[in-house]
Amino acid sequence: MAKPILRVENVYKKFKDTEVLKGLSLTVYEGEVVVIIGPSGTGKSTLLRCINRLTEPDSGDIYLEEQKIEPGKSNLSYIRQQIGMVFQDFNLFNHLTALQNVAVGPIKVKKMEKNKAMELAMKELERVGMAEKAGNYPAELSGGQKQRVAIARALAMDPKIMLFDEPTSALDPELIGEVLEVMKDLANAGMTMMVVSHEMGFAREAADRIVFLEDGVVAEMGSPEKIFNNPEKERTREFISKIARLNNGCKDQEVL
Amino acid sequence: MVEHIEYFISIWPELFKGLVVSLQLSAGALLLGLVIGLPMALMRTYGKGIVKALAVAYIELIRGTPMIVQLFLIYYGLPDLGILLDRIPAAIVALGINSSAYQAEYFRGAILSIDEGQGMAAQALGMTKQQAILYIILPQALRLVIPPWSNEVIYMVKYTSVAFLIAVPELMARGKMIISETFKPLETLFWVGVIYIVVLSIIAKIVDLIERKLAIPGFQMIRED
C-alpha cells in the first residue's frame, strides 16, 4: 500500500445552523488522484478549505503525512506551503504579472533569493504552457490562462498535494480543455491531487478514485469504472446520470 | 487691465511667501494624516475588540467635530496642559489629525474593495495574515485609493486657509494683511483665488500623472483617454 499523504478524520463543520460536514473521513495516498463529486451544498469546497484551514473545522483531525494540521500553531504557514490550492475563481494577485504571481510565494514565504525564484517561476510557467505570457497582468489573460498561472503558482511551492476547487467551473467551455490538459499532465507526473470537479471526462481518464460526497459524508467511493458503471447506491447512479446528461447536453449545444 | 497686472506684480512677493507656507502646511498635514490614517484604517479593518473600538472612536470623534474647534483646541487649549506649540506646528498637527480620520476611511474603503479571494490565495500559499496584507492587499488598495486621496490633497491645500485664524502667515492671511494696507479687498482676493486655482490645477495634474504611472492593466480607475 502506498503511504497516506492526507488523512481527514471525522471532520465536522457547521455554518450557522447548517451542518455541512458531518463526520467526514477520507485518506489520500501518495500519487493518487482523487476526484470528489456530489450535489451542490454537500461540502465539497468546505472540505478542501478545512484541509488547509482557510475554514476552521468544528471538530475532527486532519493530518498531512504525520503532521497534524492545527489552527493557531506556528506551523500552519509551513503546512499550507506544502498544500497547493487552486480556486474556482483563480484569485491571481491582480497587481502582479504572471511571473511575479508565481514567484511571490517562494520569495516571501520560502525566503528564496529573487533571481532563483524568478527562474523557478519561469520553469513552472513553462510547465503549464504560459511562459510567453510571463510579463502579462491577470487582467490581460483569458480565464483558462489565469487558471494555468494559478496552477503554476501553487506548484512553485513544491507542494506534497494539490487541491483543486472546481478549477474549470468559472471557465467558458472552450477554455476548459487547456486547464484539464495541464491537470492531466500533473497527474501523469505523479502529483497527489484532490479535485472537486464535475468534469466527467477528466474523472474517467485521470482519477484513481472517485469519491461521491453527499449530505456531508462520503456516500460512496471507488474506481471510475465502478462509480460510473456499477455504483452500489441508487443515489450515486442518479447523480452520475444527471451529470452525464448535463455534460452531453452541453456537447449537443456546441454542435448545434 | 495694465494696472491690475501691476497691482498683482506689486503684491506677488508677499503672496508667494504665503503660498509657500500654505504648501508647507499641506505637505506636513497630509503626511501626518497618512502616518496616522493608514494604521487607523488597518486597525479598524483587521483589528478586534479594543483595537478596533479605539480606531472607530478616533475616526468618528475627529470626523464629527469641526476642524476649527480642533485647531483652537490644539493652539489655545493644549497650553493649559503644558503643551505649547508654535503657530505653524499647531496648524500642521490640527490639519493632520483632521485629515487622518478622512484618510483612514479612504484607505478602509479601498482595502474592503479588494476581493477576499486575494487574501485567501495568499494565505493558501503559506503567507501569514500580516504578509498577505503587506504584500498582496495593500499594494492593490493603495492604487485604488489614489483618486479619493487626490481629493484630500486638493481639500487640504484649500483648508490650510483656516490657519489664518491663528495668524499663520499663509496665503489667505497674507491676502488679509495686504487688504489692510491697500484697501483693495476685491482685487486682492481675486488674485488669491487665482493662485489657489493655478496651484491646485498643477497638483491635480501631478496626481493624475502618478496615477497613470502606477496604473496596472485592468486595474486602474482612470478613464481611457
User: What is the CATH architecture term of chain B?
Assistant: Orthogonal Bundle
CATH-defined topology of chain A: Rossmann fold
Q: In terms of quaternary structure, what is this? A: heterodimer
What fold name stands as the CATH topology of chain B? MetI-like fold
CATH 4th-level superfamily of chain A:
P-loop containing nucleotide triphosphate hydrolases
Q: Any idea what the shape of chain A is?
A: globular
Could you give a short account of the major beta sheet of chain B? none
Strand content of the residues of chain B, in percent? under 5%
Protein architecture, described:
The complex is a heterodimer of chains A (256) and B (225). With 256 residues, chain A is of the alpha/beta class. Chain A is built from nine helices and ten strands. In chain A, the strands form two sheets. In chain A, strands 6-7-8-3-9-10 form a six-stranded mixed beta sheet, sandwiched between helices. A four-stranded antiparallel beta sheet of chain A has the order 2-1-4-5, with helices on one face. In chain A, a hairpin with a 2-residue loop joins β4 (59-64) and β5. Chain A is globular. The mean pLDDT of chain B is 93. In chain B, 79% of the residues lie in helices and 0% in strands. Chain B has helices at residues 2-46, 49-63, 67-77, 87-112, 116-124, 129-144, 146-159, 171-182, 185-214. Chain B has one domain (2-214): MetI-like fold (Orthogonal Bundle). The A-B interface holds A 52, 54, 77-78, 80-81, 83, 85, 87, 89, 91-95, 104-105, 108-110, 136-140, 150, 153-154, 157 and B 115, 117-118, 120-128, 131, 135-136, 139-140, 143, 216-219.
